[in-house]
Amino acid sequence: MSDILVDALPYIDLGYEEPGVREAVLEMVSEETRRYKPTKNYLENLSDMNLKHFQTDLLRNELERIENRQPMEMLSMKRYEMPGPAPGKMTDMSSWSESVNNSMAQLEHQAIRIDNLDLMQKFGPESWKQYNQLLTQIQSNAQKNLHDLRKRIQEVNWQRKSSQTAAGDRIRHLESEWVALVSKNYEIERQCLNLEIEIQESEQKLNDLQNNESNKTNNNNNNKTENKKL
Known about the structure:
This protein is 70% helix and 0% strand. It is built from three helices and no strands. It is rod-shaped and about 190 Å long.
């Protein structure tokens, strides 16, 4: 599980379209890309590809023919021919036997092809029908999986939106409480400051009154002393 915390609520965050936001994001991207060494070929660190690893002899010969601009060999029909003995071996029994064996092999090959065509005509449509049914079932399963995945994606998006909306309401409520507490603290601090000022003023008045009373007392005592002397 990743330890990265994505601090973003795209369903409730605002301000993405405000002036300067796009420029700030592009500047952050540019600053991050400057950390990497620029290169024109981002695959240069990979090993060279071995393109001949999967080439067969037939494919390799064909690629060499194309590279050398040589014409393609025509399809040989020699195996389907049924030549007789050479003119100089018309009386040779072994030559006639070889020709007959070749003719029998060709006829058997054509007979097998006819049997395969008959089998395909008899069983091919049903096999093709079953193959199409299999493809239809595969398509249906794929569509069902796609529908389930889209439904799950929609549910995840709905849960994200629901949780972010609830978190946004909670954040706004906490922000309002924070603003109220800050305002209340500010008002308390202001009242405390005013009380401190009033206390200082009261203490100053009290000191002034005490000083005046002390001066009056001293003056009275001085007057009494002078009167006694007289």
